[in-house]
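Whiteboard transcription, Tuesday session. T.W. wrote the structure tokens on the left side:
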């Protein structure tokens, strides 16, 4: 059960109050907004004037929002969305100019990588709700989420090659979400994918009309909320772990996890409820059934 326990060690640090931010955009507005209701946490990128660029401050704010009280049984799903017509334009290029030193550049990319990998290590599903353009590290953010729902007007691109900065870090997430030749065409040309092309190639999960985006995202979120948090946490961690393995190792890992799942209180509750033809009552705890 070590794999189960490890999931719950995240988020043991202090975090800011609801809907606050550790840094502000021009005009004093918070860079991100955090709202939570009914088990669903909405994290909103809130710097449309700068196309929601992933500055170091924005990345730190996003990281803090993701980790806030992450062990709480009340948190079941995280949705990342954005204000304005651009979901996220990627890194703030002014931070990557020669005015800043290599140490600062290194910090930007290290924190960005930390946020992207954190998304897949969190014990709850993370959904990108995309309504607009997502480029470079913004496209990387979409690819890093567990699920992505996009409006029909959304587009996705990695145009760094056009300004002499190849999108090598976005390529990590892109290459694990898209067929290799599709990812490389995006990286080599900088040309965007439409929402429907992104769906066809697996970058997003669903494409809906703009006026249905909120409804469909919340439908998926509420469906997830019907399940046990501990079971989903174990399943999510195992999915990403086994994907990096060969077939035999993957089956060995997942077979043991199925056994571990059966020792969970909610694992037994679900089976008993099915047999008794009743609705399960989840504890959402990682405790083993005694």
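and on the right, the sequence the group agreed on:
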């Amino acid at each position: 059960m070590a794999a189960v326990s490890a999931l719950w060690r995240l988020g043991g640090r202090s975090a800011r109050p609801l809907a606050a931010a550790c840094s502000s955009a021009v005009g004093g507005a918070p860079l991100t907004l955090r709202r939570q209701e009914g088990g669903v946490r909405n994290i909103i990128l809130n710097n449309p004037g700068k196309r929601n660029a992933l500055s170091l401050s924005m990345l730190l704010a996003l990281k803090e929002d993701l980790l806030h009280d992450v062990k709480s049984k009340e948190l079941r799903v995280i949705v990342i969305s954005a204000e304005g017509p651009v979901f996220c334009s990627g890194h703030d290029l002014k931070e990557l100019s020669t005015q800043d030193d290599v140490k600062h550049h290194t910090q930007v990319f290290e924190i960005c990588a930390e946020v992207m990998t954190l998304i897949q290590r969190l014990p709850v599903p993370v959904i990108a709700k995309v309504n607009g353009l997502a480029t470079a590290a913004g496209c990387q953010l979409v690819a890093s989420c567990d699920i992505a729902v996009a409006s029909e007007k959304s587009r996705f691109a990695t145009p760094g090659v056009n300004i002499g900065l190849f999108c090598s870090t976005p390529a990590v997430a892109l290459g694990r979400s898209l067929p290799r030749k599709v990812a490389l065409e995006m990286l080599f040309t900088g040309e965007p994918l439409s929402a429907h092309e992104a769906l066809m190639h697996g970058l997003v999960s669903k494409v809906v009309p703009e006026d249905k985006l909120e409804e469909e995202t919340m439908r998926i979120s509420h469906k997830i909320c019907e399940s046990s948090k501990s079971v989903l946490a174990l399943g999510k961690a195992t999915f990403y772990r086994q994907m990096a393995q060969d077939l035999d190792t993957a089956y060995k890992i997942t077979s043991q996890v199925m056994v571990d799942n059966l020792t969970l209180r909610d694992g037994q509750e679900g089976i008993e409820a099915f047999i008794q033809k009743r609705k399960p009552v989840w504890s959402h705890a990682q405790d083993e059934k005694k």
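Someone added at the bottom: The longest helix spans residues 102-121.
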